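Tokens as discussed.
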């Protein structure tokens, strides 16, 4: 469950803010785009690197960084920039659809207790896989999965959600074309179930299935992560049952 690694599009990317732009909306869009690029740099980034990856002129990037630093959204250590504490606090207050979270809370808790697995419900925010709610019972081998946390695209949860996008054939970040085609084929063969056989973390297996609204629209994925060398017998069916229970709960609200 590594942090996201969103690769920049390079010099061909259309700049978010053109040099000389005085339009307030353009500056705001540029600032958010720059923060998005910076948030993917776990070890921070220098001015030239940020300007290149964001596709924004270097002088404009510098000006935006100074403005964001004054607001506490960016902090500078030496020649590198990082997401500021103020922005990190705001990010921690992210909240998904409260109806979906309420509908999933008990099925997630019960599935974790019955299977001795780490269970989490995830949604797709753009191309980012975000956790809504999670339960891990007595399992201590896996760090807590907190609401708002991001999962890598290659996880079972990521594959389920990304293959169900309207533009599902577009290769998302984190995959080569060949890897994405294999992921699509695997999910389709299994009827929208994704299984991770120690592919992301050694000694860890995971089963993920989609969660639908009563009208059939896929809105989330529920996953059960087992700290075992193989997927436990019957786990897939239990995850599917939990998914159906969430759908029923959504119909009651």
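Sequence:
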């Amino acid at each position: 469950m590594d942090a996201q690694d969103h690769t920049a599009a390079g010099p061909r990317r259309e700049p978010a803010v053109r040099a000389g732009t005085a339009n307030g909306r353009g500056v705001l869009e540029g600032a958010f785009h720059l923060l998005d690029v910076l948030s993917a740099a776990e070890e921070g980034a220098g001015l030239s690197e940020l300007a290149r990856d964001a596709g924004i002129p270097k002088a404009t990037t510098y000006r935006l960084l100074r403005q964001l630093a004054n607001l506490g959204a960016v902090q500078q250590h030496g020649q590198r920039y990082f997401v500021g504490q103020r922005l990190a606090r705001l990010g921690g207050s992210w909240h998904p659809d409260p109806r979906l979270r309420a509908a999933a809370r008990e099925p997630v808790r019960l599935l974790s207790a019955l299977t001795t697995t780490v269970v989490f419900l995830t949604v797709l925010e753009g191309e980012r896989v975000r956790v809504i709610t999670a339960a891990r019972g007595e399992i201590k081998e896996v760090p807590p999965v907190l609401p708002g946390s991001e999962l890598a695209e290659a996880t079972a949860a990521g594959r389920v959600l990304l293959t169900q996008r309207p533009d599902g054939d577009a290769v998302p970040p984190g995959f080569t074309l060949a890897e994405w085609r294999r992921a699509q084929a695997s999910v389709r063969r299994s009827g929208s179930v994704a299984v991770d056989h120690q592919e992301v973390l050694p000694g860890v297996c995971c089963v993920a299935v989609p969660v639908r609204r009563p009208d059939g629209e896929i809105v989330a994925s529920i996953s059960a992560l087992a700290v075992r060398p193989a997927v436990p017998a019957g786990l897939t069916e239990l995850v599917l049952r939990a998914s159906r229970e969430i759908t029923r709960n959504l119909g009651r609200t």
